[in-house]
Amino acid sequence: MDFAEDLIMIGQRAKNAARKLAFTGTETKNKALLAMAQALLDNQDAILEANVLDITAAEEKGLKKSLINRLRLTSAGIADISNAIKEVVGLPDPVGGGELWKRPNGLVIQKTMVPLGVVAMIYEARPNVTVDAAALCLKSGNACILRGGSEAIESNKVLARVISEAAEQNGIPEGAIQLIPKTDRAYALQLMRMNKYIDVIIPRGGAGLIRTVVENSTVPVIETGTGVCHAYVDLDADYEKAVSVVFNAKTQKPGVCNALETLLVHEAVAEEYLPMIGKKFKAYGVEIRGCDRVRKILDYAVPATEEDWSTEYLDLIISVKVVNSIDEALDHIYTYSTKHSETIITENYTASQRFLNEIDAAAVYVNASTRFTDGGRFGFGAEIGISTQKLHARGPMALPELTTIKYIVYGNGHIVE
Amino acid sequence: MDFAEDLIMIGQRAKNAARKLAFTGTETKNKALLAMAQALLDNQDAILEANVLDITAAEEKGLKKSLINRLRLTSAGIADISNAIKEVVGLPDPVGGGELWKRPNGLVIQKTMVPLGVVAMIYEARPNVTVDAAALCLKSGNACILRGGSEAIESNKVLARVISEAAEQNGIPEGAIQLIPKTDRAYALQLMRMNKYIDVIIPRGGAGLIRTVVENSTVPVIETGTGVCHAYVDLDADYEKAVSVVFNAKTQKPGVCNALETLLVHEAVAEEYLPMIGKKFKAYGVEIRGCDRVRKILDYAVPATEEDWSTEYLDLIISVKVVNSIDEALDHIYTYSTKHSETIITENYTASQRFLNEIDAAAVYVNASTRFTDGGRFGFGAEIGISTQKLHARGPMALPELTTIKYIVYGNGHIVE
């Protein structure tokens, strides 16, 4: 049997489910979410068994240890995933509500929020995304089609089966949560062109995955992720803040998109500041790739190439450049930024205002770590990704970003003159 | 010289302009808009001369009269276009403002609105779009790249030159308003892949143009326009409203996307209602394409084919079908709707609520004409298009839809633990 046709059927089922899900009440959705959370705990053995298959295959393929760690599930990990669903239960339902106004002719217009419809997620190794995405889509009334990476396919299949069964047994329409059981690239490409069935595709993963989706998808895409984040240490920086914020942004979790990749330092403070942060980086094993002026001050820095300025290392590496002025810093960020998160360290009012106004990014900071760009840390209670595009959503995306507008208009025989 | 390279330069100039325009104040933008409005009046002769070239070329090519009428500019038409700019001056600036909240750790987060950056508009015959789009983009702080149709190229060139010169003489950065002087398809396709320079593409025109942009663009697109709009006359309809609303929706301006294309009638009222509306349609020269049951009641109706149910006529033609129930009406609309505007005519509370809740469209109406789906009629003061997609904007788009989010975060040495 041809799987290309199966994929159309998955799309059709999702579309049918979405039609019903759009007016399924919050109580039903919450009850189903709680059942999903419980089902993960009840089926822990089956999930762990499937996960062993993925881990074994990954080890046989010789995958990197960091990747294998991302794949691995444990009892505690499953409990965390289950608890994450319970947190979604506690969040407000983004569907419904909205403003209402009356036009001079008596027509009443209500702008209300409705689900997007069918959301497809294309993601990589971590199996928890399967459950997180399904829970957020369900709470916002969307059907989801999940396409995880091949490394996690056995874990994903069991996770998706367990949660979709629990959902369907609790009033959620059949087809609301579906995993694509095949990870061939051809089917992912087919998915990206199924405009008839899918309302939006959200890719989550590395730069390569995101580029593939953006270049091939005719379905609207919400781009997430790539972050070449900068810190600029101004001539009026407080050194203590400059050391702790920059060190935190680079090292607290280097493998994520809001981690720092490039440090720009004003020439007036370079000789004092660079040795302070350099010493901390060196002790922590962070490789410094510096411009010529940095290397005159830090003899252990290796030379930065042009490519370094646009590289998202996601690792214990940082590119460092000395700049003549805030203008040079703004120009550098304008040229190399992926418009994710940028921070300035300064005590100067005008410098902070210029940075906040002139930098074009999802999040701009004064005297704080770029690592705060996160749905939870912003207070949204959840996160389905961090948008680095400008349409629809920008920055951390939570439940409201999974809805769209519907105008409801109450007339009484109104016609246009 | 290779125009492909010129197009890159246009993109670069727009990007440079957008960077400055993002923090150009409302007063400067309004002053420039007023100058643009005046410049159109001052340069009326040059505009009309150029328009004669377009009209002559169109007549020589034997274009349809309706299309030639859309191309034609007059003194009064130029005054209207000039006045439309003045109305944009009166609208609130969508840039800036927004909510602000404090996190438990003391971090203050501000969600503010900023321009999208560079907006490309791809449109067809009507030269007024050149000015409308430029004015709305300028007011919202966006640079614009305009690519109009070949039929209006001479008019568009003069219009764009006149308004961009007036803008630049009044504090607007060079390159903020640019028209692409060549209308070859190859350059339009190149534009659709200039992600480095363009933040969003908005196509305005027929279904063919919109499909081409959706299928070929890697730049994010806001889809506008196609409307296969339905009216469902319920068994509890008030006949008077049903006749006047349906007649209005079909005939008041048949060439636009919010005009009615399909009429569904409940079988219980078909024998009484169809002759009433049929008589009015017949007298007005509206062709009725009906299902078999319609044709038994209206012998002058021609047979509807399967294709008719998904056709946007934009003409004095309507497809008409008798349905057994509201469920059949909802199913029909679910199958054939382009999710633009749909209306129910009923006095029944439950039927109205089901229609409003279950129909998935940008605008759903009770007892009112679909022709109200319009930025001006909704009270938005302006309209850059009507979005029929779900991401970013849905329904009439005005100035706020030309902005995106920027999170500004005020810290005091905050780091992530």
Automatic annotation (TrEMBL), chains A, B:
Compartments, as annotated in UniProt: Cytoplasm
* Stored SUPFAM superfamilies: ALDH-like
Q: What class of enzyme is it?
A: oxidoreductase
For this protein, the record's CDD domains field holds: ALDH_F18-19_ProA-GPR
GO-annotated molecular function: glutamate-5-semialdehyde dehydrogenase activity; NADP binding
Instruction: Show the catalytic activity.
Output: L-glutamate 5-semialdehyde + phosphate + NADP(+) = L-glutamyl 5-phosphate + NADPH + H(+)
List UniProt keywords, sorted A-Z: Amino-acid biosynthesis, Cytoplasm, NADP, Oxidoreductase, Proline biosynthesis
Q: Would you identify the family this protein belongs to, as annotated?
A: Belongs to the gamma-glutamyl phosphate reductase family.
Name it: Gamma-glutamyl phosphate reductase
